[in-house]
Amino acid sequence: MYALEIKNLSKQIDGKQILSSVSFKVQEGEIMALVGPNGAGKTTTLKCIMNAVKKDSGEILIFEKPFHPSIKKDIAFVTEHRKVFNNLTLGDYYKMYKTLYPLWNDTFFKNFLSKYGFNLNEEMQKFSRGQKTFILAILAFSTNAKLIILDEPTQHLDPAVRFELIEITKQYVNDKKGTILLSSHEIFELEEYATSFAIIKDGKILYTDSIDEAKQKHRIVSLNENIKGAKVIAVMNNEVLVQTEEDIGEYPRLNQIIVGYLKS
Ligand SMILES: Nc1ncnc2c1ncn2[C@@H]1O[C@H](COP(=O)(O)OP(=O)(O)OP(=O)(O)O)[C@@H](O)[C@H]1O
Predict the structure, then answer these.
(1) Which atom of ligand 1 is nearest to 40's Cα?
(2) What are the beta bridge partners of residue 66?
(3) Which of 89, 151, 172, 186, by CA, is between 20 and 30 Å from 36?
(4) Which among 184, 202, 220 is the end of a domain?
């Protein structure tokens, strides 16, 4: 079953085409990464899924159904700007999330509080950007929601916290709690934990696949190598990313596939 199916999603804002027929699917139990340059349309896509931005056309199915307010209890969304309500404390957020999400995991959340020494009486706005990012992600993972959507989840995190969040993300999926869709610029770290990806540029999907399949279908070859009719995606310095399943060159890393398609 698909946790998400995005079909031909299009959106204009102020007469500018922001998304053009965006299509990709996220299988249940995947960690799907939406990658692309600044202004590519990642956040707008995530907001359309959450119905925070109204689509112009196309179809978005969440667990095989169009968006309906009742699905919100099954989705936890961490937005890009980590906006928090003024004067609300971490304790207020805790109570709010616990009320909104029926499968709330109190043990997980309390363990996090004691491990990092966060105080429930602290106002959310007083936390640093990185602390807010981490706290909002932990609140999301404490929901036990079937779908977690994270806009640039590791941005502003220190290396230790970043590592911890990646481990938590992998564990969530390994424990079969849900599916993750995230957007990210961190193309070097994604290979550690994502299972599938979609590359978006200028509001268009350039390529989408599982990471394993994408590696099977591409090779990195040197400039003078015989590419045996393979399709050239991009020349990157003195290497070439090609699409082929022939026994040539080397299997690419995820970041090479992403950079190649963005250059194509
Ligand atoms: N409310 C808005 N009004 C006008 N333009 C907007 C609005 N929201 C988004 N855009 C435009 O839509 C385009 C895509 O923005 P979006 O935030 O979706 O990109 P992104 O891929 O998430 O970028 P980044 O990686 O920089 O966060 C940009 O050109 C942006 O200026």
Answers:
(1) 21
(2) 61
(3) 172
(4) 202
Residues 23 and 130 in one domain: yes
183 touches 20 (CB < 8 A): no
Structure tokens at 36: 């692309």
Name the residue with the closest Cα to ligand 1, atom 28: 39
Domain limits at 244? 212-263
Per-residue pLDDT band at 229 (split at 50, 70, 90): confident
Q: How far is the CA of 254 from the centre of ligand 1 (A)?
A: 25
pLDDT, tens digit (0-9, with 9 covering 90-100), for 59-102 = 999 999 999 999 999 999 999 887 888 889 999 999 999 999 99
Q: Of 162, 184, 202, which residue sits at a domain end?
A: 202
- Domains of the chain: total: 2
Tokens at 225, concatenated: 């190598």
16 with 104, same domain? Answer: yes
ipTM more than 0.95?
A: yes
Residues of the chain by 3-state class (helix, strand, coil), percent to 5: 35, 30, 35
On whether both 32 and 158 belong to a single domain, the answer is yes
35 Cα to the center of ligand 1, angstroms: 14
Q: Are residues 195 and 99 in the same domain?
A: yes
Q: Is 136 helix (H, G, I), strand (E, B) or coil?
A: helix
- What's phi and psi for 77, nearest 5 deg? -125, 125
Q: Which of 21, 17, 14 is nearest to 57 (CA)?
A: 21
Domain with 99 in it: what CATH number?
3.40.50.300
pLDDT band at 237 (very low <50, low <70, confident <90, very high): confident
